[in-house]
Hints:
Blueprint: H1 14-25, H2 52-60, E1 64-65, E2 71-72, E3 79-80, H3 97-100, E4 127-140, E5 148-157, E6 165-170, E7 176-178, E8 194-195, E9 201-209, E10 218-227, E11 236-243, E12 247-271, E13 278-286, H4 288-291, E14 294-296, E15 299-301, E16 309-313, E17 333-337, E18 341-350, E19 353-363, E20 368-375, E21 379-388
Antiparallel strand pairs: 1-2, 2-3, 4-8, 4-12, 5-6, 5-7, 5-9, 9-10, 11-12, 12-17, 12-21, 13-16, 13-18, 14-15, 18-19, 20-21
Amino acid sequence: MAGLSICAMGYAPAGVYRWGAALAARGCSAGPLGSRPGRGGAPPPRRKAAPAARGRSAIARGCSASRGGAARLPGHAKTLRRHVPRPCKPEGAAPPRQAREGRGVRPAKIPSMRFTNEPVEEFPAHMDTLQIFSVKLAATRGALQLPLDVFGMVAIRDPVDHNRNIIFHRKRENCQTLTEKDPYLVLAGPTRAVMFALNPAIIEVDLQIKGATESEDEQLSFLVSPLRRFDTRYSHLFNCSYTSKLSTLEFKLGHIAFSVEATIFVRVVRGSWPDCYRGQFNAFTTGFTDRCPMPVGNKLSTGTGRETILLLDSGGEKLPVDGDSKIKFSRRVVSVECVGKVTIKVNVLEGETEIVEKAASFDALEAGKSVDWIDVTFCKMEVTVFWSSISCYPM
């Protein structure tokens, strides 16, 4: 019996079979029963049996139990350390500054405009996507009252690469002030179209309220929540609200069916934008349900064309323009139905009084670019939309 190999006995655990196969692949033999792995010879002296719970844990992993709660993989000298859970952080404790300021954030590496110049036909080009119209601080609780200085991160993860697609990110020294008149976060994304498939998208929020000192900062909202779609073929609007201990956040979202990605650039080609005027740049997208309302769930969808996607509001500051005369938008990527269109509207205001309103519209394309011009008297702007199909693969 001592010379019978383990694999020949017929009742060895499944982990032992895997061990024997691994040894065979390396040209080793399992050896006689009770001998050391990969070697012949007499069995080692008996040791005191390990506790039952530890022994079962080791057998379930196909390992041998040893002293100190460690498990030794057969045929290997490497020892696996026993997992010791870390103590939980006290409830209500503020996260470290590195987390609060968004350091270590792993943003989505897949850029926009992936297939603008080279369309790929190996996958469906018209994917359903998620449009983020706005994120609003809808309510506060306790002693919190607006205005509030807010910083932190809001992100969306989708099934394409599962990385964070940042839609809001502010550091503590660059926080945004939310007021009763304007309780909306200034969105800086998404950086590419967000796929909205049968696998849910994930909303991540980590927002802080800036205090007089770092130790007085408070958690405004902290959540991770799946976002599931209706089983529908039609574009529609929907709202999601998330309530925490101190606040309620409201997301205004759109499910855009059979969509393509549009990346928008505006460049000043003649004249200049006067510092005394405020500039607002908005995008609107329309599609099939804007022309022909369709039932979605227990409601009738009339499309998403009435909702504004704010690309930039210069407020009381100078219009931001880079060295190539391109206007620096807060966000520039939107989703458009493949049978729809996108409209870019420019509003010139003096204070709250509107002086000029001009717009340019573009029919959706699967690839390439569309160009038009907007003239607002004191300057002429070139509007370029780069189109791209959307892949469900991170390639």
